[in-house]
Amino acid sequence: MKTQIFQGNRVRILLHIVAWIILLGLPLYIINRWNFGKDFIWFYYINIIINGVIFYGNYLLLIPKLFFSIKRYKYYLAALVLMVCFYFVTDISNEFVFQFGNNERIENQAQRRPGETREGLRPPENDRQFRRPPFGLLHATNYGFTNLFITFFALGLRVLERNAQIEKRQKELEKEKLNSELAFLKNQISPHFFFNTLNNIYSLISINTEDSQNAVLKLSRMMRYLLYESEHGKTPLSSEIDFMNNYIDLMRLRMSDKVKLNVSFPAKYENISIPPLLFISIIENAFKHGISYREKSFIDIGMEVSKQLITFRCVNSIVKPGDESSAQHSGIGLENFSKRLNLLFPGKHKLKIEESASTFHVLVNIYYTKT
Questions:
Q1: Of 117, 145, 170, at which residue does a domain stop?
Q2: Which runs of E-coded beta strand occur in 187-252?
Q3: Do both 49 and 114 map to the same domain?
Q4: Are residues 166 and 195 in the same domain?
Q5: Which residues pair with 300 in a beta bridge?
Q6: Cβ contacts of 258 within 8 Å, gap of 6 or more
Q7: Nearest 5°: phi and psi at 276?
Q8: In angstroms, rounded to a whole number, what is the distance separating the alpha carbons of residues 168 and 295?
Q9: What is the DSSP letter of 133?
Q10: Tens of pLDDT, residues 341-353
Q11: Beta strand ranges found along 177-308 (DSSP E)
């Protein structure tokens, strides 16, 4: 973030330098093109420096210190005082420039022969010399409009920059909030199936040693995925599907013949990157609250991947919970899943949850862009 701020300031400084190069180099082009005198150069540079002082006085000092404070009226008073003070500075400097220019012209005219112009070609009445403009009301009006424009330009530029910084800071805060909430949700998900799987493997050891060894291997792969691969913001879809398959295979260990399980994951698909542990809470919820050891029950899990669309469905039978805490845990899992979708795919997903007397249906459509 500090690097981005530094780069942003560097670009801003570079733009100011380019603007000043143009402003300071402009009179050199005008002099070469139109043959203006030295008094024009003095007049231009004095006024451009004064305008620059007014601009940066507002841009760097008055606006940050006073305009963005609670008592904003202090800024308007300070800006007015700054303009009035430099009005008298311009008045005195212009008097000096015009007096210096008049003396120079008198000396030049004294050195010329009668009828000779500065260029030696045109008559004196057509000689292009910088002449003193009328002062008084005209000077005050011109100065007022010019520096009002400079002041409000500095104000608008500073406000836009501040709003851009606030927007960037808000995005950084939202990103940090997203990461913290995803970490919290992942920590909520992980312990549930970990402890359930350990209990299943413990029960299987005394019955079938080979199956228990395979179960330990699958569990180790799952834990490796949880501890290492899922730490990144994105993971390949193939790794996520492998993780879900391993989890489902471990859950089969405690299923009875009365449970009908149907799993349909795509065999060929574009291996895009998705957030890790995205659908596991729905699958876990189906196994935890959708199967029964005494009655017939079912779970149907499927995924389809097409161009820019992932469709995930999970349908399971509804088993009456033994107590209220079971239903409460089920609601927490769905709430976490909905939060993750809102954080990860704002405006790019559709979540549909339907519940009847005997079935519970979750359908998710995620519209992704390949990166």
A1: 170
A2: 235-236
A3: yes
A4: no
A5: 262, 315
A6: 292, 293, 294, 295, 296, 297
A7: -70, 155
A8: 56
A9: P
A10: 887 888 899 999 9
A11: 235-236, 259-264, 273-274, 297-306
